[in-house]
Design goal:
It is a single chain. With 163 residues, the protein is α+β, with helices and mostly antiparallel strands. It folds into two domains: 15-96, formyl-coa transferase, domain 3 (2-Layer Sandwich), CATH 3.30.1540.10; 106-161, no CATH class. It contains eight helices and five strands, in the order ββαααααβααββα. The chain has helices spanning 32-41, 45-48, 56-61, 63-74, 79-88, 99-104, 106-110, 152-161, and strands at residues 15-20, 23-28, 93-95, 114-118, 124-128. The chain has a three-stranded antiparallel β-sheet, with helices on one face. Strands 4-5 form a two-stranded antiparallel sheet.
């Protein structure tokens, strides 16, 4: 039974999140041929050619060494540089978004995953959109959150009318 393991996939190596100079990337170099391409891309042909690391079992046994080698390569580089190199080497990898990254991504806004609302005091605030997006019942933000006490009269009136 799997338990919490952070960003790693226990028993599958290498597959983890690695620090970059300006963020984090997730790299899934766990297929046998992908691992060789990954090691070549990061300048570690010695690990890619190591017969003991040719299969997943050998890589799992030395996952700390492999993760350290990948992290040493990613750490001084910008996320975009890491992704460019790995994309050219056909190694699955992706940026790990922060909340700020999500809020600024035009794709998230186009999909309605970030929506703007107006608070009771007139402030415009970005909030998460409705998930999941269903075709017949897509969901919507229909009103702002009430300010403290704003609905008290209506609630008390509804309660007294039930008596």
């Amino acid at each position: 039974m799997r338990e919490a393991a952070g960003s790693a996939l226990p028993g599958i190596a290498p597959s983890n999140a690695y620090p970059c100079a300006d963020g984090w990337v997730l790299i899934a170099g766990n297929g046998d041929s992908i691992f060789k391409r990954l090691m070549s891309a990061i300048g570690r042909d010695d690990l890619g050619a190591d017969a003991a690391l040719a299969g997943n079992t050998g890589r799992v046994a030395r996952v700390e060494e492999i993760d350290a080698a990948i992290g040493a390569w990613t750490s001084p580089r910008a996320v975009i540089e890491v992704l460019d190199v790995l994309n050219n080497a056909a190694v699955p990898a992706g940026r790990i978004y922060t909340a700020k990254d999500i809020a600024e991504d035009p794709h998230y806004r186009a999909r309605g995953m970030i929506q703007s609302i107006t608070t009771a005091d007139g402030l415009t605030l970005d909030v998460p959109g409705i998930v999941p997006k269903l075709s017949l019942t897509p969901g919507a933000i229909t009103r702002r959150a009430p300010s403290l006490g704003e609905d008290t009269e209506a609630v008390l009136s509804a309660l007294t009318s039930r008596r």
